[in-house]
């Protein structure tokens, strides 16, 4: 049993050993949403530093279970690491925006979600080249990190404090945005809608999702990137 004191956890080494699997689990969940340029070991290392920070800061009187508190600190440390890293090269951001623009144009023209072949044709690339673009842009977020940064303003993650009173998902509290997001998700092709639920609601990793859909992990990555592009295209202006 881990003992708690006013200065945090009494046995930090035991804490690190016990919760190291939690760090790895959170890292693999996050990697589902990140490009291949991000190394899993870097995310795990940042998460371990977050766990150590949680062990030092935790106060049993917060009224929260340690695992709940640690999860927040671990995720915060991982996001902070991503903020400081060149997590998505400009060329990949450019490709993702090209995909989004093509999807938006085809959606208006066809009156339905375009399929991969149609998107590839609009981009003037082969289907294989388009799927490779999706693979490389794996994990482009619904909102890119720099989208939170106004000229002359502090970076979004600098303004966030990952403590017991803050929540990185506060952005989603806008009811109109949530309604539009739900509508956009509902309008995704069925398989992509299922995939988004497995990632963001059930916290399943690529391998688990691939087993459900009967495809490989790389194909899951492609479908996820495409789904995110569809959502970003639908939510332009929000």
From TrEMBL:
This is RNA polymerase sigma factor FliA. The keyword Cytoplasm applies. It comes from Candidatus Gallionella acididurans. Residues 206-225 bind DNA. Residues 184-232 are annotated as: Sigma-70 factor domain-4. Keywords: Cytoplasm, DNA-binding, Sigma factor, Transcription, Transcription regulation. InterPro entries: RNA_pol_sigma-70_dom, RNA_pol_sigma70, RNA_pol_sigma70_r2, RNA_pol_sigma70_r3, RNA_pol_sigma70_r4, RNA_pol_sigma_FliA_WhiG, RNA_pol_sigma_r2, RNA_pol_sigma_r3/r4-like. Transmembrane segments: none annotated. One of its GO terms (molecular function) is DNA binding. One of its GO terms (biological process) is DNA-templated transcription initiation. Residues 15-87 are annotated as: Sigma-70 factor domain-2. GO terms for cellular component: cytoplasm. Sigma factors are initiation factors that promote the attachment of RNA polymerase to specific initiation sites and are then released. This sigma factor controls the expression of flagella-related genes. It is found in: Cytoplasm. Belongs to the sigma-70 factor family. FliA subfamily. A motif (Interaction with polymerase core subunit RpoC) lies at residues 42-45. Residues 42-55, 205-231 form the RNA polymerase sigma-70 domain. Residues 95-165 are annotated as: Sigma-70 factor domain-3.
